[in-house]
Amino acid sequence: MSVPLLDLSRQYAYLKDEMDAAVLNVLDHGWFILGPEVKELEEKLAELSHVGYARGVASGTDALLLALFAAGVKPGDEVITTDFSFFATAGVISRLGATPVFVDIEEDSYNIDPKLIEAAVTDKTKAIVPVHLFGQLADMDPIMEIAKKHNLKVIEDAAQAVGAEYKGKPAGSIGDFGCFSFYPSKNLGAGGDGGFITTLTDENAELLTILRNHGAKPKYYHKIVGFNSRLASIQAAILLVKLPHLRKWSEKRIEHAKKYDEAFASASQITTPKVMDYSTFHIYNQYTIAIPNRAELQAKLNEENIGCDIYYPVPFHKQECFADLGYKPEECPVSNKAADSVISIPIYPEMTADEQQSVIKAVLSVCG
Ligand SMILES: *Cc1c(COP(=O)(O)O)cnc(C)c1O
To answer: For residue 186, how far is its CA from the centre of ligand 1 (angstroms)?
Structure first.
């Protein structure tokens, strides 16, 4: 049986009437950018994230860009981040003229290893960007401790972790800023690009509100040079329909993950994703296994039309665009190993039991 890696049409079929009405309503009222739906969504997202404020922006990448800018990251600064993530995490640091400093990951969580951060701090370090990869938070307590000691800002890249929790605290509520993406493949996906930033203080919220609109306050008066990064009302309208279902969808992902865990428990070649003690709600944006014979498994899944992808095949320190940073290929050994062995398989909430059985059978036929 063919199984897609993700099938958004099922989510749409489930919510079609409500979603159609919400979109048509925006077409009717015509306030397309930062309209009333955006304001309502921001209030609900702030509540979900246990923070004072959420601000909608044009993408998850922009969420990171604006948060780093708001945190005062400037050309010449250094920003410490993980070596293993989606490109945007590192790209925005360079885009601001700062230098990304890559730190290796923990073998069990694929997230930045807090034990290695302090050695990377210099007098140029301005901020730390931990990524909550695959839907599980990085180990935030030691990260916040190091940040406090060295007076660094912390920007959580929570693009894959909306609604996930660390010791009961939601993603985006721990650092100075939390950055989220509404890219359609994220757990809370829009009908296009979008993102949001969470923050605890009204000063930060005010700054983000100005930054996303060219730094203007009032209109046409510019104290700072900002960005054009605003959330469209149609996206917010779609997200308002989906948001009440998010928790249930994440729980469904957890159920699928448990089934996979059990099915793969006796397959000694397969490393299933580990839920860390501090991770009180892992939302499985991806279910990522590690195996030595990945190419063989990938070929088998392709042959059976079972969706899979490799997040991520190249660690940051080996990316061509970062060659001038002078990392050696063998640096960050844990991240190197992950890049060579991980593969993500279908985990979307609407996947049927039969479909999951097909995935399990195909995986075990190669790695059993
Ligand atoms: C998706 C993602 C982003 C970027 O979000 P976009 O909305 O695609 O710009 C940033 N960081 C991580 C870890 C992501 O997964």
So the answer is: 8
The answer, yes or no, to whether residue 367 has pLDDT greater than 90, is no
How far apart, in whole angstroms, are the C-alpha atoms of residue 219 and residue 222?
Answer: 8
CA of 263 to the centre of ligand 1 (A): 30
Predicted pLDDT at 13: 97
If DSSP codes are grouped into helix, strand and coil, which group holds residue 7?
A: coil
| pTM: predicted TM-score of the whole model, two decimal places | 0.98
Domain assignment present for 12: yes
End-to-end CA distance of the chain: 19
Which pLDDT belongs to residue 16? Answer: 98
Domain around 300: 246-367
Site to probe by mutation for ligand 1, drawn from 181, 235, 284, 288 as the one with most ligand atoms within 8 Å of Cβ, is 181
pLDDT at 368 over 90: no
Q: How far is CA 184 from CA 11, 57, 177, 250, in A?
A: 11, 15, 22, 15
End residue of a domain, out of 224, 244, 264: 244
